[in-house]
UniProtKB/TrEMBL annotation:
One record GO biological process: carbohydrate metabolic process
Keywords: Hydrolase, Membrane, Metal-binding, Transmembrane, Transmembrane helix
Segment forming the signal sequence: none
InterPro entries given in the database record: Glyco_hydro/deAcase_b/a-brl, NODB_dom, Polysacc_deacetylase_ArnD
NodB homology domain segment(s): 68-245
SUPFAM superfamilies assigned to the protein according to its UniProt record, in alphabetical order: Glycoside hydrolase/deacetylase
One Pfam family hit: Polysacc_deac_1
Protein name: Peptidoglycan/xylan/chitin deacetylase, PgdA/CDA1 family
GO molecular function: hydrolase activity, acting on carbon-nitrogen (but not peptide) bonds; metal ion binding
GO cellular component, one term: membrane
Listed transmembrane segments: 7-24, 30-48
């Protein structure tokens, strides 16, 4: 059972018990309010940290692998930058995983097709990457995912088995949608912050010292800055004799449905 399921009941019992005890004047009200606030903070924190596996099981790295392998992952494409990313991966003979947005696949179907043709894995990152993702009802989460499944299938012939929620946010509705659609949730254990940090050196300094066997690295194929960072990162990986493989190969799971 997932943590969320039983922790929810522990708090419900605590709050009910606390309410009864407060009603009979045995504890002050602030104790009851503190428990409620703690539950709220835990829920919000867990929704932003997929690695807690709080709402849904998330695959974020492979700690058991004993080869020098990692998985480079790129979110939010395809964009006009993606061909340059693909050229670099080809030049250094490395494979990656692209968590694509449906709207972008519709705009650049040839790039999506190229990803698959060149041995990279394509995966689902919702249709629109809406900022409201964490607040959508289950039905709308399902629609976001299914629309993208159809678009990716039309462009590449592949039916994705892997999903990464936008912003790494999970909650009960996203968990239910993933279970319903039989999708595996993929996280990361190295976040480059390449959409936030402007200095390429700082981004590289966030990634390189953290690389270990089995790491999953989060990047975005949305800016020239990331393409520049990637080139240096690939040089570094080559020097350290690390190979990037598709995330499904690293985690030993299936990238696509049959
Ligand atoms: Zn994203």
């Amino acid at each position: 059972m997932l943590k969320h399921s039983y922790i929810k009941w522990i708090f419900i019992v605590l709050i009910f018990g606390g309410f009864v005890t407060w009603f009979f004047d045995k504890i002050p009200l602030y104790v009851l309010i503190s428990v409620l606030i703690f539950w709220l903070i835990l829920t919000v924190w867990a929704s932003f940290d997929m690695r807690m596996n709080y709402f849904v099981k998330t695959h974020s790295s492979n700690t058991k692998v004993n080869r020098n392998v990692i998985a480079l992952t790129f979110d939010d494409g395809p964009t006009e930058i993606t061909p340059e990313i693909l050229n670099l991966l080809e030049k250094f003979n490395q494979k990656a995983t692209f968590f694509c947005i449906g709207k972008q696949v519709e705009k650049y179907p040839e790039i999506a097709k190229r990803m698959v043709n060149e041995g990279h894995t394509i995966a689902n990152h919702t249709w629109s990457h809406t900022n409201k993702m964490g607040f959508l009802p289950e039905k709308d989460v399902v629609n976001e995912i299914v629309s993208n499944q159809k678009t990716i299938k039309k462009a590449t012939g592949k039916e994705c088995h892997l999903f990464r929620p936008p912003f790494g946010v999970t909650n009960p509705n996203i968990a239910k949608a993933c279970n319903k659609l039989n999708l595996l949730v993929i996280g990361w254990n190295i976040r480059s912050l390449d959409t936030v940090i402007s200095s390429k050196t700082k981004i590289l300094n966030r990634i390189i010292p953290r690389i270990k066997k089995g790491s999953v690295i989060l990047l975005h194929d949305t800016s020239q800055k990331t393409a520049d960072v990637l080139e240096q990162l690939l040089i570094d990986l080559k020097e350290k004799e690390f190979q990037s493989v598709p995330v499904d190969e690293l985690l030993q799971i299936k990238a696509y449905k049959e």
